[in-house]
Design goal:
45% of the residues lie in helices and 19% in strands. With 218 residues, the protein is α/β, with parallel strands linked by helices. The chain has 2 domains: 10-159, Flavodoxin domain (Rossmann fold); 166-213, Proto-chlorophyllide reductase 57 kD subunit B (Helicase, Ruva Protein, domain 3). The longest helix has 24 residues, at 139-162. The structure holds flavin mononucleotide (FMN). Flavin mononucleotide (FMN) binds next to helix 1 and strand 3.
Length: 218
């Protein structure tokens, strides 16, 4: 599977680990390489609990990954989700999660992954993967993880394209275009949301008037 070459997917791997050059580092390099091979632009950044994560907004896909030490997901990643603006910067982002650990997968899914997911319940999680010791240096495991991320990313992106099926008649389009640009984009998005919620296929000036007087108050 390939990513749109004109506008490559921008992915960032946010991670924590204690061992430089250990299994997490190797996994990150392998995941990054596989994403790159599939046409994505990839960066990585090591988490610090109190860092500023505003830069995350520039990425389409965020992969969060860390090892487990003493029953807890590596602390700077968890700390960043609790203490910094990371959680806010991840709003609306598509995510993938992975953990490196020595426990069997069922245990890791029950005990460790929720430590991350509890902070991310409003996010779309495209794929989650536990890398057990026998998978850490297995290229197939990494390929399958990346394949699932990219397939789910494409699927998740489709509703956005679907919104273009909404039509605007000329009157309604002119009314919104005539508004100052800082308002018109907001009104356009709100109207399309209103239309979708009410099963409306064509946005007309009448729809605009009704929406304006609705409790949503455009
Ligand atoms: C000090 C220490 C504590 C660990 N504690 C756990 C644990 O509680 N649960 C678990 O599943 N794996 C545990 N592991 C295994 C690590 O999560 C696993 O080896 C991981 O790949 C280490 O990543 P790293 O090489 O990037 O440091 C521990 C490993 C170490 C060295």
């Amino acid at each position: 599977m390939t990513v749109n070459e004109e506008k490559p997917l921008r992915a960032i791997i946010l991670y924590d680990r204690k061992t430089s050059g250990g299994s997490t580092d190797r996994l990150i390099d392998a995941i990054g390489h596989e994403l790159f091979e599939n046409g994505a632009y990839v960066e990585k950044a090591k988490c610090r609990a109190n860092a500023d994560y505003s830069f995350v907004k520039e990425f389409d896909l965020v992969i969060l990954g860390a090892p487990v030490y003493y029953l807890v997901v590596s602390s700077q990643l968890l700390g960043a989700l609790v203490q910094s603006n990371l959680k806010r910067c991840l709003r609306g982002k598509k995510l993938a999660l992975f953990l490196a650990c020595g426990s069997p997968e069922p245990m890791a899914l029950t005990l460790y992954l929720p430590q991350l997911k509890v902070h991310l319940f409003t996010n779309r999680i495209l794929s989650e993967k536990i890398f057990a010791p026998d998978q850490m240096d297995d290229p197939v495991a990494v390929e399958e993880f990346v394949e699932e991320i990219l397939t789910e990313y494409e699927k998740a992106d489709k509703p956005r394209h679907g919104s273009s099926q909404l039509q605007w008649d000329d009157d309604a389009a002119e009314m919104v275009d005539a508004m100052p640009s800082f308002i018109s984009s907001k009104i356009r998005a709100s109207l399309e949301e209103y239309a979708r919620m009410n099963g409306i296929k064509v946005i007309t000036s009448e729809v605009l008037q009704v929406a304006r007087s609705s409790p949503m108050g455009f």
